[in-house]
Design brief:
This protein is of the alpha/beta class and 221 residues long. It has eight helices and seven strands; from the N terminus they run H-H-H-E-H-E-H-E-H-E-H-E-H-E-E. Helix 2 runs antiparallel to helix 5. The radius of gyration is 17 Å and the shape is globular. Bound molecules: S-adenosylmethionine.
Length: 221
């Protein structure tokens, strides 16, 4: 099995379980037209995020890494009307594209895009005593993943779900000799997760239209 087969199966899953969705299709089209890289989660992965948020009954969601707002829209759809999603993005152009996509999807009332380096934004949120989040999705620059985990824990409560994307990287993350900064960030993140008594966690390898990767899933207890 390789990429063509994984993509074919993802297409089948999408055709079978994910009805056509104008807002999400328009989000991907607008993101591409604006020159954003197609490094958003796959549709079935986005729906998994929505399902996790629904299963958790999330009312407050934090996302680190917005891009064009594709995963943001999936996650925000799990929120009740009075729910809130805060998404952090470094690049003002990405944030502008995301805000338009989120507004088109009818979710502007519950989503806030905060622009800036996420570590600084998170530090300001913690210093301001921001209320804890029920679900945190980490999907930005991987070298900073250990810092994002610390911030996610500081902004969590027992029952918070933490999801981190791209923790396998075609298997490169399992190489202890790697000097790749992203791999090092992911390995340090996984070690910190393992050493954290407040977390129960696992990680899952995935294949699909986005290649071979995986995600980590943790629960704050
Ligand atoms: N979650 C998005 C989705 O699935 O639709 C994809 C996010 S993309 C993989 C990563 C995003 O994180 C990019 O838009 C990038 O500009 C942003 N990013 C990278 N470094 C960052 C940082 N230090 N602070 C905040 N955002 C950052």
């Amino acid at each position: 099995m390789s990429q063509p087969a994984w993509s074919r199966v993802d297409a089948w899953i999408e055709q079978t379980l994910l009805p056509p969705d104008e807002a999400l299709a328009a989000t991907l089209e607008a993101s591409e037209a604006a020159g954003l890289r197609a490094i958003n989660v796959a549709p079935n992965q986005g729906k998994l995020l929505m399902l996790l948020a629904l299963m958790r009954g999330a009312r407050r969601i934090l996302e680190i890494g917005t891009l064009g707002g594709y995963s943001t829209i999936w996650l925000a759809r799990a929120l009740p009307a009075e729910g809130r999603l805060v998404t952090l993005e470094f690049d003002p152009h990405h944030a502008e594209v995301a805000r338009a996509n989120i507004a088109r999807a009818g979710l502007a009332d519950r989503v806030e895009v905060r622009v800036g380096p996420a570590r600084a934004t998170l530090a300001a949120m913690i210093a301001a005593g921001e209320a804890p989040f029920d679900l945190v999705f980490i999907d930005a620059d991987k070298p900073n993943n250990p810092h994002y985990l610390d911030a996610a824990l500081a902004l969590s409560h027992p029952g918070t779900v933490i999801v981190a994307d791209n923790v396998v990287r075609e298997g490169r993350a399992a190489d202890p000799a790697s000097t790749d900064e992203s791999v090092l960030g992911i390995r340090r993140f996984m070690e910190k997760v393992a050493a954290e008594p407040r977390l129960v966690a696992t990680a899952i390898q995935t294949v699909g239209s986005k290649g071979y990767d995986g995600f980590a899933l943790a629960l704050v207890v």
